[in-house]
Amino acid sequence: MSSIPGDLAAFLVEAKRRTYAGLDDDATVAAPLLAGSKQLEHRAPPYAYRDIYFGMGFFVGQETVALDDRVIWSMSYSGGARAEIGDRDTFLAIYKFLRQALRAVSIEEPYRGPRLFEQAGMVYRNGAEGALDRFHGIETIARQNGVPLYELRYSGGLLR
Q: Are 112 and 128 contacting, i.e. CB atoms less than 8 angstroms apart?
């Protein structure tokens, strides 16, 4: 498949808002395909979205989109809160803020969150490069004074 389906970006935005970004782990399926993983899914035929990840403080995962039961797009990611963050309240605040940033995902760059999002004394930055067919990027969260809290790297695109 060399061309991008016209509604793929819109479906990705909807799927992300209806899974982790919008519902946290409440969107997790009861019996994940891989033991020990969290698995989130959203369907809007002809598309089906699946996000499977392992870990929490540091995590790795993969999102896929299938069109008529054939996976056409995927994104892999890894990252998390900085290792020195041991305070549970700080940890939970980082991930709550991350979900808020991820809900602001755009149809122009439907990979993670927006280029910049600021709230509650934290700053989210997303440096994406490429297009929906082949892209990569790094997202970070820092306190407004610049103290780093979180980093994630991602890459993906259309499968061919």
A: yes
Contact status, residue 104 vs residue 97, Cβ threshold 8 Å: no
Reported pTM: 0.91
> Which residue from 11, 18, 16, 71 is spatially nearest to 44, judged by alpha carbons?
11
How does pLDDT run along the chain (160 residues), one tens digit per residue? 447 777 999 999 999 999 987 776 666 777 888 999 999 999 999 999 999 999 989 999 999 999 999 999 999 999 999 999 988 899 999 999 999 999 999 999 999 999 999 998 999 999 999 999 999 999 999 999 999 999 999 999 999 9
Alpha carbon distance 54, 44 (integer Å): 25
Contact of 139 with 152, CB cutoff 8 Å: yes
CA distance 12 to 105: 9
| Domain regions of the chain by residue span | 8-158
- The SS3 call for residue 24 is helix
Among 5, 14, 73, residue whose Cα is nearest residue 44: 14
Phi-psi region of 55 (alpha: psi -120 to 50; beta: other; left: phi over 0): left
